[in-house]
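User: Look at the shape:
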Amino acid sequence: MPKVGMPLVRKPQLVQAAMSVIDRVGLHAASISLIAKEAGVSTGIINHYFGGKHGLLEETMREILRQLSQTVTSHLRQIPKTEHVKRINAIVDANFVGFQAENKVAKTWLAFWSYSMHDPQLKRLQRVNEKRLLSHLKIELNTLFTPEQATVIANGIAALIDGIWLRGTLTPEGIDADKARFIINDYLDKQLTFYSLK
């Protein structure tokens, strides 16, 4: 029987181990035995806490999403609610800096993206993340555009975030937050100009 309080230690340890193994060998080759070895525990511990590999992968995805949500919230807290473009930049930054930009996290994200197309639970988590991003963006964009325009632009920014993030993950240089911010600001400026001329 595990000691009291051990889940608080073991679960994050196993999530980190899962990301490290996925980084090294990919999602499909990330077996329970490799993850257990990486964490320095028996395979039975993974089954005990997560019910197997799928449960651990789901918890890993949840942890990445929690970290992203906390980063977005933290960034937004630092900026006055009247500074809408800066707040959009804060949302963008949260997707490209810190935890999200770590190599093993980026590779895990990428693996989950492809895996979620065929797994209903992971697909649901991906949709939650997408809705959260669009919601944050629309809150700021609704102050600058009509609701219909804000929806279109929010989807455009989300697509840019995903595309820039994907390219950054697949290149040796990695993710460039400054470049992402520049591209998205350029897009936003063009939208502001376009709609102001209508």
Observations:
- The two ends are 68 Å apart (CA to CA).
